[in-house]
């Protein structure tokens, strides 16, 4: 079914190698490995307040006693429950992690194992007595993640990101640039700024508002329903001088979100700004019942008793045009701060390529990317909900502070595959390749088969992860299969080469040479070690 995949033997070997790299780097910063249950009582999610926040993405079920259960999407609640066992600040800091199956009922599982409903994740958690300790744990994880992804061969970018349902004071995503990515990332070419589009901002060029009517002035706009159509109909209302009114239902309440006519709205920014749990675009009939007009003729001028959130780009603007809340009518001469009762000024707009970097003014790029890791400063939200405290140096109870840090193993594997492939198949970096070397036999005569097996066993004795291809297939088939599955190095053993005392050495990148038979294993071991060292 959609979002559920079987991993075959070669994928298992690659995923296990990714897990090994993660474990080594987590252990190196002092983290301890746990294994927590995937099936959890719903009451702990109620206690944290996230049972409703997670919405339909959480798999929910009942046991035979009619108790409410959930399949774990992440494990903050369970880990903070374990943290209740700590009593003194002397037991802190703590770093705990696991590699375990997670479940999310994705509305649109797609892109292979990049977005699935069942997946393996390394999730780790830090526990500290104060914010300074959290900062240190967060930085230790940031560095560890950079080492992890480097060892996988991934050239990652650390970017500012929305914390979403996790909450907390800040988060960093690790992404790789890829046309296969689902995320949009805003980057400054100078390296001064990097953020997910859900978090990104920019410096906008000022817009000059010419003088206009002394107050809002309605005018007929028959059949006009879009920003572009209004700009064509009324030359005095280009998109940058229009107000776009978007209606959402947030926690059951109709809310108006305002952005400039030429700007897009990022829904995650609206979620972050309002703290909404249940959020969706309003239906046309809901809007009509409240406003008396249909989409295309809507605005916020004179609206009372309704939450109105407005993007910062509208602050101070005058002589603007927006819907009049009467079908086929708009209103010009709108002074935003005079004529609209804005509840909250927030950042809502989508940053576009070419806008100015907020750090240095350089034109920004917007690129597709794959998220491969995410780290969060959770703060005391979960600890407060569960009463997780320890006694400080003065014997007084202090609420602990937490961080949360995640890497999806199958997602990381897919990201490496997207970064390393060509028209012939995969090109795994040696650190995560299912096998480092394939010994390919050409011919089926007994002396050749015997020598190939000797080389295969000698490679194993040297600690090389090697597979022997002695199938009864044509050489071209064997070569194509080795390239397809992405084995980094190939040693070809054939009767002609053996007559000369050589084997053919081939890299997945296409480089080749003859190597003396007596030097073949040493050459293989040296090549593999150099390739691994280059990734450190």
Task: Explain the overall architecture.
The longest helix has 22 residues. Strands 1, 5, 6, 7, 8, 9, 10, 19 and 22 form a nine-stranded mixed sheet that branches. The protein has a five-stranded mixed sheet with strand order 14-12-13-15-18. Helix 1 packs across helix 11. By secondary structure, the chain is an alpha+beta fold. It contains 15 helices and 29 strands. The protein has three domains: 214 residues, Bira Bifunctional Protein, Domain 2 (BirA Bifunctional Protein, domain 2, 2-Layer Sandwich), CATH 3.30.930; 130 residues, Alpha-Beta Complex (YbaK protein); 108 residues, 3-Layer(aba) Sandwich (Rossmann fold). 29% of the residues lie in helices and 28% in strands.
């Amino acid at each position: 079914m959609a979002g559920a995949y079987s991993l075959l033997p070669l994928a298992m070997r690659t995923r296990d190698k990714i897990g090994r790299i993660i474990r080594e780097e987590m252990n190196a910063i002092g983290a301890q490995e746990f294994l927590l249950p995937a099936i959890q009582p719903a009451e702990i999610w109620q206690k944290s307040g996230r049972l409703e926040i997670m919405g339909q993405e959480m798999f929910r079920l009942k046991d035979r006693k009619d108790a409410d259960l959930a399949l774990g999407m992440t494990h903050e609640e369970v880990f903070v429950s374990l943290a209740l066992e700590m009593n003194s600040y002397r037991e802190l800091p703590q770093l705990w992690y696991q590699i375990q199956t997670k479940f999310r009922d994705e509305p649109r599982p797609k892109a292979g194992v990049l977005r699935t409903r069942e997946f393996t994740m390394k999730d780790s958690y830090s526990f500290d007595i104060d914010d300074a300790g959290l900062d240190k744990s967060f930085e230790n994880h940031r560095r560890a993640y950079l080492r992890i992804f480097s060892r996988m061969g991934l050239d990652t970018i650390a970017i500012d990101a929305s914390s979403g349902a996790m909450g907390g004071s800040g988060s960093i995503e690790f992404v790789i640039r890829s046309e296969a990515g689902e995320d949009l990332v805003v980057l400054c070419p100078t390296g001064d700024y990097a953020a997910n589009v859900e978090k990104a901002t920019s410096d906008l060029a000022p817009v000059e508002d010419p003088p206009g009517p002394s107050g809002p002035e309605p005018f007929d706009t028959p059949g006009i329903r879009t920003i572009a159509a209004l700009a064509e109909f009324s030359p005095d209302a280009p998109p940058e001088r229009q107000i776009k009114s978007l209606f959402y239902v947030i926690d059951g309440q109709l809310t108006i979100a305002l952005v400039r006519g030429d700007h897009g709205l990022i829904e995650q920014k609206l979620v972050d700004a309002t703290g909404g749990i249940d959020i969706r675009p309003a239906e046309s009939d809901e809007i009509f019942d409240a406003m008396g007009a249909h989409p295309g003729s809507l605005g916020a001028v004179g609206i009372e008793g309704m939450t109105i959130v407005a993007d910062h780009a509208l602050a101070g603007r005058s002589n603007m045009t927006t819907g009049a809340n009467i079908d086929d009518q708009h209103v010009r001469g709108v002074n935003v701060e005079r004529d609209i009762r804005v509840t909250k000024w927030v950042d809502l707009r989508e940053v576009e390529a070419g806008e100015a970097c907020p750090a240095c003014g350089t034109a920004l790029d917007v690129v597709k990317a794959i998220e491969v890791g995410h780290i969060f400063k959770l703060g005391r939200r979960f600890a407060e909900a569960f009463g997780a405290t320890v006694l400080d140096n003065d014997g007084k109870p202090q609420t602990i502070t937490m961080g949360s840090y995640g890497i999806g193993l199958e997602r990381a594997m897919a990201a490496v595959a997207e970064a390393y492939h060509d028209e012939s198949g995969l090109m795994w970096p040696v650190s995560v390749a299912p096998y480092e070397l394939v010994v390919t036999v050409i011919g089926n005569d007994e002396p050749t088969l015997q020598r190939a097996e000797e080389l295969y066993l000698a490679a194993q004795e040297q600690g090389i992860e090697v597979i022997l291809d002695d199938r009864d297939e044509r050489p071209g088939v064997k070569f194509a299969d080795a390239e397809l599955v992405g084995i980094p190095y190939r040693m070809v053993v054939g009767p002609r080469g053996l007559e000369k005392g050589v084997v053919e050495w081939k890299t997945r990148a296409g480089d080749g040479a003859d190597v003396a038979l007596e030097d073949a294993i040493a050459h293989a071991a040296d090549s593999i070690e150099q390739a691994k060292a280059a990734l450190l």
